[in-house]
Amino acid sequence: MGTRIYVGNLPYSADNAQLSQMFSAYGDVVDVRVITDRDSGQSKGFAFVEMSTEESARRAIAELNGTMLDNRALRLDEASERSSGGRSGNGGGDSDRSRHSDRPRGGGW
Prior knowledge:
single chain, alpha+beta, four-stranded antiparallel β-sheet, two-stranded antiparallel sheet
């Protein structure tokens, strides 16, 4: 598996092919995904690019961070690891609120 790069402040007009071409100058591009809204299909203004090596990813970040694309300064950083799903803690229910089963019977609060 290669190294993933977060690309933020992306123009809404940018697409996978455009990013792939831009990043290929720094090494082999494994995958490009412009993140879009499920309902509208509109870009959310960020993407992930996976490079084949850590070295090529670092070089791309160093060279492309802050460069302008359609009047927007790109923000690049190494993407954090993907989680394996689920939430940390005790099942995601880290709340001080009482659960339904904690309520007294026979009436409200």
